[in-house]
């Protein structure tokens, strides 16, 4: 198993329970992959080391699975954003765009139906019938004023390209609501692991059939040491980048501390392009059941990943898609290895989807092995 993130842990556990002997390797000095959580040494606050992670899903089996390893406490993601209103006044607004945002931003007191009419008739660009790009999607559904305040600058900072060069699908992840529901997600099950994600993943890996080796880098030459490899590292990395590199955005976090409550919420986005960071995360608000006088915050900056950087978001623009196709062809020919997870398949995957795919992969592998034994 290459990678001690969710993919490696869930597949490893499933196969270990079926009697296989599993070795999990990770190049980092900790388990948990990008979901890793750790207590901040100075403040004692549980920190989401690689960026804010909120668990949300409609998948009952996955929800039961994670609750089988760790207590999940109720947590709703309520994000705020700082930006300029149409008069150029700086303010704090509610996300995702909802009735509160609309009324506050435009200085109105509209009820749901009137707000819907206002946005669709006075703001939205209805001449765009089939939005293809991020920008078209925004102009079509919220109009230029909201787009420029909340999405344009943030997206340029996050992705490093104009929103007209990005697919509409990125914005489709965010709802627009004509009521006061400010829950960032729609999902039925939402929560936060009481003791952090790493504690949960530690329990998933805690099985007599599993050996974890940290600070151990895997390369293709080691594949022969194992009956089968599940690889959750970067797809292009497995092939030694022989066709070139798949593009990623990476994140830099600037840590600072504060005595008391710095911003009053876990995540504050910054819509203005002139503010260099995309958001500030104040980690103690992810665990409202804990009490800490001190507070630790991360300012988050996004940039193109260099070879030595941690890959975070796959870019998946036109060039990357072509290169991805070539790597997928290589992956299909490779024997004895299954490419899994967000890096192994070069896709943005939420944690619940990662777990669902990991369970399906492990079951598929066991079923194929059993069919092979019978034949
Ligand atoms: P990873 O966690 O990346 O694990 C892969 C592991 O493989 C890493 O530990 C790496 O060190 C190791 N590795 C790679 N190559 C090698 C090698 N050659 N040798 C040895 N080890 C290697 N999901 C949500 O559901 N909710 C959220 O709020 C959320 N927020 C996110 C915020 C950010 C900023 C990011 C980037 C992602 C977020 N996600 C969120 C997604 C979540 O992080 C992923 O679903 C999850 O981390 C995927 O797990 P994985 O095991 O596939 O990959
Ligand atoms: N986005 C934005 N402004 C915001 C929040 C999000 O423009 O305040 C855009 C941005 O391009 C982001 C996309 O919407 O990549 C999807 O948002 P989400 O919160 O899902 O981002 P992620 O969790 O991927 O960081």
From TrEMBL:
This is UDP-galactopyranose mutase Glf. Its EC number is 5.4.99.9. It comes from the Bacteria. The keyword Nucleus does not apply. Coiled coil: none annotated. The keyword Flavoprotein applies. GO terms for molecular function: flavin adenine dinucleotide binding; UDP-galactopyranose mutase activity. Belongs to the UDP-galactopyranose/dTDP-fucopyranose mutase family.
């Amino acid at each position: 198993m290459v990678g001690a993130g969710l993919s490696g842990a869930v597949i490893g556990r499933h196969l270990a329970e079926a009697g296989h002997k599993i070795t999990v390797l990770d190049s980092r000095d900790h388990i948990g992959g990008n979901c890793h959580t750790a207590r901040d040494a100075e403040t004692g606050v549980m920190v989401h080391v690689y960026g804010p992670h909120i668990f949300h899903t409609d998948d009952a089996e996955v929800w039961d699975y994670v609750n089988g390893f760790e207590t999940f406490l109720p947590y709703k993601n309520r994000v705020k954003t700082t930006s300029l209103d149409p008069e150029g006044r700086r303010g704090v607004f509610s996300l995702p765009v909802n009735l509160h945002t609309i009324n506050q931003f435009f200085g109105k007191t509209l009820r749901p139906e009137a707000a819907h009419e206002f946005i669709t008739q006075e703001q939205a660009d209805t001449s765009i019938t089939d939005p293809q790009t991020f920008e078209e999607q925004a102009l079509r559904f919220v109009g230029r004023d909201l787009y420029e305040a909340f999405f344009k600058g943030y997206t340029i900072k996050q992705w490093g390209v104009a929103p007209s060069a990005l697919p509409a699908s990125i914005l489709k992840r965010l709802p627009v609501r004509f009521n006061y529901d400010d829950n960032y997600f729609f999902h039925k099950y939402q929560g936060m692991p009481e003791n952090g994600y790493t504690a949960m993943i530690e329990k998933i890996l805690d099985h007599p059939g599993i050996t974890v080796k940290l600070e151990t880098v895997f390369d293709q030459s080691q594949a022969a040491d194992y009956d089968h490899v599940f690889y959750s590292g970067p797809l292009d990395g497995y092939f030694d980048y022989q066709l070139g590199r798949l593009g990623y955005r990476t994140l830099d976090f600037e840590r600072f501390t504060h005595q008391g409550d710095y911003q009053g919420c876990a995540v504050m986005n910054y819509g203005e392009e002139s503010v260099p960071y995309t958001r500030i995360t104040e980690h103690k608000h992810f665990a409202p059941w804990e009490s800490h006088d001190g507070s630790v915050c991360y300012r988050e900056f996004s940039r193109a990943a260099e070879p030595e950087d941690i890959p975070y978001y796959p870019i998946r623009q036109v060039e990357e898609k072509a290169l991805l196709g070539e790597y997928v062809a290589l992956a299909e020919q490779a024997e004895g290895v299954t490419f899994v997870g967000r890096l192994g398949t070069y896709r943005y995957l939420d944690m619940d989807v990662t777990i669902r795919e990991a369970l399906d992969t492990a079951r598929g592998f066991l079923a194929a092995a059993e069919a092979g034994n019978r034949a």
